[in-house]
């Protein structure tokens, strides 16, 4: 799995480190190194998110237990970590394998990526099986993830390790970019125990550095690194270079220029820079590459965009001029996906984005570069400004699911899920409205399971005097029926009276209560859709169900009346 990392841009102030702190460890930083002091958020107590008219099957909060209660009295980090969550930041490429979610969350100290926290979570129950943490207070380096994978009995992290100048990992910024040396961590898949760690020794003068945000492809005997570069010496030129490194970190070849861009005669200072991958190496060893030139506003140059596939030797196989598809003015063309069946390119219309929210469009091609689908939310009457890093889910029947975040005038947010069909029609499928008026949420990851259920990672925050407090990355599993069958939140109250299940979780007897008489047929399904029981309810305010024979896990209770109207509730069997 190829993992693309991204960085949130935040406001901060910088100051030169020139003095030692009283009764604090001595800090030795190279001359000219800058320490970052960000606009810190105020701490706030974690409260699990609740949503109006929908209950998740389970929720899972990511917490770094190694940093709970850490108070930076020396001012080295300029932050306070009371709950082990404030330093957790962006997603590091979470994925599902088999019956488990592997949730990768990048940690941060003062806006610097510091390591990755991995949670192995049971998809059925939401139970945490094990967690891998990286204690950034005691390790003299930072590690970023390039790739994570699961084998038959191992969990493997490949990454870039960057040494830090002082023993307490004091933050600094290098304007040349984040780089380091190759590292590999191998863990036991069942227990999470570290089995093996490798990185070239510091004394190995032949080791070659990797940049975190290049396109790094790892093979059994080598690492291939592809880089988009520009010609700063003459202010012109766009090139794709390739470097090959062995797994010991030694340079095999490169960096070699393997392709010179079509727009190399244009000034590099008159264009809008791209904010995402423009290159993909396919499984068969072909190269797919987007060349684009979006001139800055006021610059008298035309827009250009070409998608090309090359063979192993960089001979052109096919290409398509994207401007013939009616793009008009655009920025930020990014290669989102390249599977054996299709290629997805996303972009932003106009100039209203800088690596962030924008008015998006999505182009889907088959592997012969025939345009399959042009997903443009604005053409359907929806004003959707989607963050470029959001997952856009494509189903086999050409349906697309689009997550979106919307804020009200006091900063509270709600998540909306849109759905399109093969006719390019988009409709609002679900509103996930947060019950707590003091919380805001950011739908960072959006996945769909084989049985149709939805997984969402929502990084949420309390609002203190209108400002965001600490971040809380939390996973939720929502049932397909709760999302698909109730397309409008307002429809819920029009079906059947609201009911309460207690206790929940339950071990033996589940009580179903309502303020009005209940009547209809009761069904209990597991999360895979299998029916476990069916019984009638005849004019009762309370109905008890014996669930003692059910196995542990999450279940769906459906109460359906004679007119086919339904109430759907979730409960957990202990």
Sequence-ordered SSE layout with sheet pairings:
Layout: E1 12-16, E2 34-38, E3 58-61, E4 70-71, E5 80-81, E6 88-91, E7 95-97, E8 100-109, E9 112-122, E10 128-132, E11 141-150, E12 154-163, E13 179-188, E14 194-198, E15 210-211, E16 215-218, E17 223-230, E18 238-245, E19 251-260, E20 279-281, E21 287-293, E22 304-310, E23 316-321, E24 330-338, E25 342-349, E26 357-358, E27 360-366, E28 371-375, E29 386-387, E30 393-394, E31 400-407, E32 413-420, E33 426-433, E34 439-448, E35 454-464, E36 467-478, H1 480-484, E37 500-502, E38 509-526, E39 531-546, E40 553-560, E41 566-573
Antiparallel strand pairs: 1-2, 3-36, 4-5, 6-8, 7-8, 8-9, 9-10, 11-12, 12-13, 13-14, 13-15, 16-17, 17-18, 18-19, 20-21, 21-22, 22-23, 24-25, 25-27, 26-29, 27-28, 30-31, 31-32, 32-33, 34-35, 35-36, 37-38, 38-39, 38-40, 40-41
């Amino acid at each position: 799995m190829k993992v693309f990392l991204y960085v949130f841009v935040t406001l901060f102030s910088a100051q030169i480190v020139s003095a030692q702190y009283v009764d604090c460890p001595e800090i030795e930083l190279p001359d000219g190194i800058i320490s970052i002091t960000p606009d810190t958020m105020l701490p706030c107590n974690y409260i699990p998110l609740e949503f109006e008219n929908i209950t998740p099957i389970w929720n899972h909060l990511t917490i770094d237990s190694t940093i709970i209660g850490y108070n930076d009295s020396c001012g080295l980090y300029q932050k306070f970590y009371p709950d082990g969550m404030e330093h957790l930041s962006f997603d590091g490429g979470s994925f599902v394998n088999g019956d488990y979610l592997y949730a990768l969350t990048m940690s941060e100290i003062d806006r610097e990526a510091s390591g990755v926290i991995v949670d192995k979570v049971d998809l059925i129950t939401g139970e945490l099986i094990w967690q891998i943490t990286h204690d950034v207070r005691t390790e003299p380096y930072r590690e970023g993830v390039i790739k994570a994978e699961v084998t038959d009995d191992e969990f493997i992290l490949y990454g870039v390790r960057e040494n830090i100048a002082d023993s307490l990992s004091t933050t600094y910024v290098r304007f040349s970019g984040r780089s380091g040396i190759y590292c590999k961590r191998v863990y036991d898949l069942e227990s999470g125990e570290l089995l093996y760690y490798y990185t070239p020794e510091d004394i190995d003068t032949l080791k070659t550095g990797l940049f975190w945000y290049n396109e790094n492809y790892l093979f059994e005997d080598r690492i291939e690194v592809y880089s988009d570069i520009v010609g700063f010496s003459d202010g012109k030129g766009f090139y794709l270079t390739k470097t090959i490194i062995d797994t010991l970190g030694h340079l095999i070849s490169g960096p070699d220029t393997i392709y010179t861009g079509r727009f190399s005669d244009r000034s590099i200072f008159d264009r809008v820079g791209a904010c995402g991958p423009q290159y993909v190496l396919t499984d068969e060893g072909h190269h797919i590459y987007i060349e684009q030139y979006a001139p800055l506003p006021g610059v008298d140059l035309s827009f250009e965009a070409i998608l090309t596939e090359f063979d192993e030797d960089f001979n052109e196989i096919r290409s398509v001029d994207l401007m013939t598809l009616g793009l008009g003015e655009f920025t930020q063309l990014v290669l989102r996906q390249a599977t054996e069946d299709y290629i997805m390119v996303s972009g932003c219309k106009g100039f209203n984005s800088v690596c962030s929210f924008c008015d998006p469009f999505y182009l889907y091609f088959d592997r012969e570069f025939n345009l399959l689908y042009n997903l443009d939310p604005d053409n359907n009457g929806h004003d959707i400004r989607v963050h470029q890093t959001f997952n856009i889910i494509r189903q086999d029947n050409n349906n697309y699911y689009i997550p979106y975040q919307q804020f009200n005038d006091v900063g509270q947010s709600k998540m909306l899920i849109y759905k399109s069909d093969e006719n390019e029609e988009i409709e609002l499928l679900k509103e996930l409205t947060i019950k707590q008026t003091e919380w805001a949420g950011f739908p960072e990851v959006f996945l769909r399971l084989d049985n149709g259920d939805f997984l969402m990672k929502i990084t949420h925050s309390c609002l203190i005097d209108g400002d965001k407090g600490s971040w809380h990355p939390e996973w939720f599993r929502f049932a397909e029926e709760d999302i698909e069958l109730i397309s409008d939140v307002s429809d819920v109250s029009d079906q059947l009276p609201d009911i309460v299940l207690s206790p929940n979780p339950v071990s033996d007897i589940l009580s179903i209560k309502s303020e009005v008489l209940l009547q209809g047929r009761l069904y209990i399904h597991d999360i895979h859709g299998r029916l476990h029981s069916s019984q009638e309810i005849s004019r009762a305010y309370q109905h008890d169900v014996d669930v003692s024979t059910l196995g542990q896990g999450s279940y769906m209770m459906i109460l359906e009346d004679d007119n086919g109207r339904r109430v759907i509730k979730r409960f957990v069997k202990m």
